[in-house]
Amino acid sequence: xxxxxxxxxxxxxxxxxxxxxxxxxxxxxxxxxxxxxxxxxxxxxxxxxxxxxxxxxxxxxxxxxxxxxxxxxxxxxxxxxxxxxxxxxxxxxxxxxxxxxxxxxxxxxxxxxxxxxxxxxxxxxxxxxxxxxxxxxxxxxxxxxxxxxxxxxxxxxxxxxxxxxxxxxxxxxxxxxxxxxxxxxxxxxxxxxxxxxxxxxxxxxxxxxxxxxxxxxxxxxxxxxxxxxxxxxxxxxxxxxxxxxxxxxxxxxxxxxxxxxxxxxxxxxxxxxxxxxxxxxxxxxxxxxxxxxxxxxxxxxxxxxxxxxxxxxxxxxxxxxxxxxxxxxxxxxxxxxxxxxxxxxxxxxxxxxxxxxxxxxxxxxxxxxxxxxxxxxxxxxxxxxxxxxxxxxxxxxxxxxxxxxxxxxxxxxxxxxxxxxxxxxxxxxxxxxxxxxxxxxxxxxxxxxxxxxxxxxxxxxxxxxxxxxxxxxxxxxxxxxxxxxxxxxxxxxxxxxxxxxxxxxxxxxxxxxxxxxxxxxxxxxxxxxxxxxxxxxxxxxxxxxxxxxxxxxxxxxxxxxxxxxxxxxxxxxxxxxxxxxxxxxxxxxxxxxxxxxxxxxxxxxxxxxxxxxxxxxxxxxxxxxxxxxxxxxxxxxxxxxxxxxxxxxxxxxxxxxxxxxxxxxxxxxxxxxxxxxxxxxx
Length: 682
What we know:
The protein has 16 helices and 35 strands. The termini are far apart. Strands 13, 14, 15, 20, 23, 24, 31, 34 and 35 form a nine-stranded mixed β-sheet that branches. The protein is of the alpha+beta class. The longest helix is centred in the N-terminal third of the chain and has 31 residues, at 197-227. Among the domains are: 2-69 and 215-256, ATPase, nucleotide binding domain (Nucleotidyltransferase, domain 5, 2-Layer Sandwich), CATH 3.30.420; 76-183, no CATH class; 486-595, Dna Ligase, domain 1 (2-Layer Sandwich), CATH 3.30.1490; 612-678, no CATH class. Helices cover 31% and strands 28% of the residues.
């Protein structure tokens, strides 16, 4: 029997299957099919030669929700809200963020729901959850009828302070289900059970916006898998890195928006634990975008304040930063004639020019083909033949439009350098700007294009070590199999920490009781359950908070002094100062409950050859710093353990290429990872 991980990306759909009996890992890539993602999943299983009846567990990460929001093709949503607050989701925070802060032509993005589709209900709760104005059933009926008459395909119920008292929202949801049974309903207290009305309302609207499309996608995927003989449910990885059932994903699709990249972070933690690398930065470069995440002591940084496009998303998620720089990112000329790269991507269709599938604009992939860093003798992903002539012509044409006499290779290097600079800024944002020194970390590179640019990126940002794991092109799909079932809970209780600490202990007790009950229902015994607790804290007068991990609430309660000291330390690291005499406020108590699933052990690395010479495929000219170098090209799966590599060189494998520039050297470790370090300068 196999367990299968599937990462549905914007350009390729990656599949990784592990044979539970032998630990053998098989991988494949197939082109993604936008708007028909399930077809690519089935095509991948066929390519692996695995029948549905031979799969025991299938976990997938998907960009369906993300793409639906970015492309504005979700459901028509109607909002029911507290009388007088119809315009809250449009007013927002009355601010604009960098870089829009400095753009004189800035136009405020349109809200997801037009004003004519926002309806008021007579009710009002106080800031402590007490009822000020009882819910008026007649106004509920009028609002529901008006919403349906306006063509609503999903309903978002967003009442003031409902996170403290969800009774009114749930009464409206019950009324909607009784009156219009087929209408999906999202209540803000069920989607985001914490304060900050604008972020909670925005997240709830996005959840409603995605419900019909995600429901149809997951239901269709399960039906088509059942037709192949698959007899189990489909698990989906949440943005926070844990798995959720199909039922949860269909009810709370907003929690899946970063599910694919989250799988890569989970697998990086698994690999880091195996090789003893505790602090690292994950670098996942695919065809459309690059995602980076900082991990300290095997624990990824997390947040509950993210953005999807221009919309706040307040759900637990790995604190990843994404930039529109991928292998398919298009090189283009700005109005002033300057060279730009991305964020627009050639995607899966038509793809880079070298694919020969109709693309006409040069991409980062085409630039690497021109530089010889991507060979043309091996089919990309096992399916796509690359045409170096097309790539060279496209880059040369862009150079002609640039109006300068330059070689295509020089322009190609410029394209790659710009892409690397954009990715460097992403790593700088999650490290230096948050008080972390990149020199203390290892860069773990994966994704179809990650290993190709990893060493150049590390050199630019100052990271001294790079690890390229096995199967980097399918790494996120493999990571889906290393994820545990995860449930997040949060309760808001704003007030001085010293006065509210006993309240927090009670909240943790309630949340843990509910979480363990849920895990019991899902079949996890006590020894396969793990509970983590944390508090969101801030200094009095601040608008935002820091998350501080806390231990068990034992007989003596939570350790106040230890929590305060941890907060001061983290505030100093994040902002450069701390105020030991300031009042610390509690904002939220958070609990994460894990159901621990067995992890695939994988195969021990064994090369088919004893000598590195037997792994040599060819030698070819590869350009670095404006000149061609005669480079060895190695077959990765034939490199023996402890084989030494010295740049310039290229390592090829299915789904990815590792480029080793001059000045770097590496070794194949006992797990088959490629471990690189910068050579000491004389």
